[in-house]
Amino acid sequence: MKAIVISKPGAKAELREVEAPTAGGGEIVVSMMGCGICGTDHHIVEEGLPTAKYPIIPGHEPWGRVFSLGTGVSNVKVGDVVAIDPSLHCGMCDQCRQAKGNLCKNWGAIGGSNPGAWAEYFVAPAKNAYSLEGFPLDIASLIEPVACAVRGLNRLNPQQGKSVLVVGGGTMGLLLAILLDINGCQPITVVEANSKRREISRKLTGLNIISPDQARSSRADYVIDATGIPAVIEDAITRVSAGGTFMVFGVASEHAKVSFSPYAIYKDEIQITSSMAILHSFGPAIDLMKVHGDRFRPLLTHTFKLNEFEKALQVLSSGEAIKVALEP
């Protein structure tokens, strides 16, 4: 089968012919119908991630048709169209036993620790499959990122009428802003440095999206960093109103460091929280998208064939796209 392979961090991604996977016990083989490209994939390509194992087939936002079943699988059948939660938990550690699988000591992911879905076929645990019967398939490549945003929303536990400042107007920042809007937070402001992306996002979402210069005096009850950039985080944490909350939502480099004033955090009773991947939010994301699909649909701006992946990565990096997905 054809698959996109990265041999090591910093190496050029290549479309190769590789052996098709087979399903083990409790697993399924899925024929990929769509898979988003994420900022985490950029980390995997450029600098590596602690959980990534090379050579690697990326792709952790997949959906597709069940092609074959391993032994002991009864929750899906061949031919079913499913979305796959890429999260892999050991089920045995202290965190897993507390139903906190996203904090698993042995946490992994399809497209990170295990071969991913930038391929014609991929393997997944059957228990990670969610039926897409009755779901609008044109937005199925957004399910996984929406599930991450739902987890962020749950961690933030926002109150209606509170103000929001989201720093970073990429896919994840916009998704979280949309969810906060649906949940009654107002006003909501998104800060985006890339002028092309800023203009596109403004047209697609109707949100108030401004430049960093325009945001110099902005403050909010909830300030969310969706960039993972240390200098941006250091500035963003100063934008939290007294009694407010700062959320680390973007993925920073493993070795990144930031500095801030502990006195300011103390004096203004600022809460600091974070959100990591997906936890009990994949199914709720599907249900939410069935109702509010029109709010999310405009964000999927580009789709490319698997053999056009280089062009897909270029378009994503250019700022001319919001969400980009691959298909076979």
TrEMBL record:
Its cofactor is Zn(2+). Signal peptide: none annotated. Pfam families: ADH_N, Glu_dehyd_C. Gene3D superfamilies: Medium-chain alcohol dehydrogenases, catalytic domain, NAD(P)-binding Rossmann-like Domain. Residues 26-132 form the Alcohol dehydrogenase-like N-terminal domain. One of its GO terms (molecular function) is oxidoreductase activity. Keywords: Metal-binding, Oxidoreductase, Zinc. InterPro entries: ADH-like_N (IPR013154), ADH_Zn_CS (IPR002328), Glu_dehyd_C (IPR031640), GroES-like_sf (IPR011032), NAD(P)-bd_dom_sf (IPR036291), Zn_alcohol_dh (IPR050129). This is Unannotated protein. It comes from freshwater metagenome. Residues 159-327 form the Glucose dehydrogenase C-terminal domain. The keyword ATP-binding does not apply.
